Amino acid sequence: MSKQTQYQARLPNADGVIEYPQAEHDIWQQLFARQQDNLPPFACQEYLAGLEKLNLPSDRIPQLSEIDAVLAQSTGWRTAGVPALISFEKFFQLLADKAFPVATFIRSKEEFDYLREPDIFHEIFGHCPLLTNPSFARFSHAYGKLGLAASKQERVYLARLYWFTVEFGLLQSSEGKRSIYGGGILSSPGETEYAMSSTPIVKPFDLIDVLRTPYRIDIMQPIYYHIESIDFLDEIVAMDIMSAVKQAMSLGLLPPLFEPKCQAN
Fold first, then answer.
1. Of 56, 144, 179, 261, which sits with the fewest C-beta atoms within 10 Å of its C-beta?
2. Which tens digit of pLDDT belongs to each residue from 208-263?
3. Which string of DSSP letters, residue by residue, matches the chain?
């Protein structure tokens, strides 16, 4: 996760408050307004319930302490301000401590629709609502503990599990109704519409397949995996994930559904 970034995280002042310029509050307001209109038909009910609990401001970037107050009461989680990109080690450690990393910068107008790096809108608007949900919170905590104990090579495979669930996961009921729970989609105006269109491939979740599926961070996803409900995340936690990782490593990656590039994972 560590690499050069065009963004600089903002640091809190002596009172623990992060002071953002008005232009950045304006970006938040525009993103919030667009997604507030965009999401209700597509976002899963658990996410919408969490969004209501957080009661995010529409006209300014919230302080992390505002988010922490709700998360602590709901599931015992909190946020942790971080730079734009952090190491796998730091990432797993935070999740294992029930602390969700939040990069304290916001995207530029040029990257309004889709952002390669996780900004504060992605983290707070995309992920934090579902951290009020017990199943999602338990999955995130278990994932952090697994990652801490994994080898460097195993972590690369584990990253795909996170990518195709927490970041880009879909729900699909037995009746075929589809909704979004992945924060990478929920925080991206462009990908929200794309993911719910007929363009991408959508397949039922299969742990081995997910661990073997390559992805790129700089494109709309050509494939998504769906689970039937948020509660299924508890079933994933109950699986022998590390045995599956070893099996996936022995089988190797599936053919990528995109053009090769050095950023591919």
1. 261
2. 999 999 999 989 999 999 999 999 999 999 999 999 999 999 999 999 999 877 54
3. -----S--PPPP-TTS-----HHHHHHHHHHHHHHHHHSTTTB-HHHHHHHHHHT--SSSPPPHHHHHHHHHHHTS-EEEEE-SS--HHHHHHHHHTTEEEEES----GGGSS--SS--HHIIIIIITTGGGSHHHHHHHHHHHHHHHHS-HHHHHHHHHHHIIIIIT-EEE-TT--EEE--HHHHT-HHHHHHHTSSSSEEEE--HHHHHH----TTS--SEEEEES-TTHHHHHHHS-HHHHHHHHHHH-PPPPSS---TT--
